[in-house]
Amino acid sequence: MMKSLIRTFRGPSRDPRMTYISRPMPRDLRDEDVVAALEIALAADPNPAYLVETLPPALKQVTGRDLQVLDRTVRDVTGAFSKVQVMIRDGGVGSWPGYDALSYPLLAPSAKAEETRAAIVAADATDGDGEGREPSGPKPGWQPPPPLERR
């Protein structure tokens, strides 16, 4: 009870790395443990977009418990604004319906995915005999419609 009272008076950690953590956190998880785990996770990969992958092993190393880490990153449509946040949970707290049924990963695109995409574009730009050709648009033989007639 005394630890809970001290945490109430002192408030959450003011470490700037705690901006990556969405509240609430599990009750028995101290901010100091999370900061230590964040230090380990960011040492493994300095890109905070990969905290979903790097933070669970770091939390296991610091606390000895298997805690779940959910991606709560927000982005605008244009991609100009992005705020990386993860939620640490123990059990079913903070789970919304449909989260487990997502058909796409919420992680940042990897370098391997970019290499694969470039290889597909390069293969699409060559004919079967290996000679290059100009891309003709979305479909072979497709032309955009003529401009509208002004009245």
Can you lay out the helices and strands and say which pair or pack?
Elements: H1 2-10, E1 21-22, H2 31-44, H3 51-63, E2 68-71, E3 74-75, E4 82-83, E5 86-89, H4 111-124
Parallel strand pairs: 1-5
Antiparallel strand pairs: 2-5, 3-4
Helix pairs in contact: 2-3
Structure explained in plain terms:
With 151 residues, the protein is of the alpha+beta class. It has a domain of 88 residues. It has four helices and five strands, in the order H-E-H-H-E-E-E-E-H. The strands form two sheets. A three-stranded mixed beta sheet has the order 1-5-2, with helices on one face. Helix 2 packs across helix 3. It is elongated. The model has no long low-confidence stretch (mean pLDDT 79).
- The geometry reads as elongated
Number of strands: 5
Residues in helices, as a percent range: 25-40%
Radius of gyration: 24 Å
Distance between the termini: 79 Å
- Across the major sheet, the strand order is 1-5-2
- Please report which band the strand proportion falls in: under 5%, 5-15%, 15-25%, 25-35%, 35-45% or over 45%: 5-15%
Task: Please provide the ordered H/E string of secondary-structure elements.
Answer: HEHHEEEEH
> Describe the biggest sheet?
3 strands, mixed
Mean pLDDT: 79
Number of helices: 4
- The stretches of 5 or more residues where confidence is low (pLDDT under 50) are none
Structural class: alpha+beta
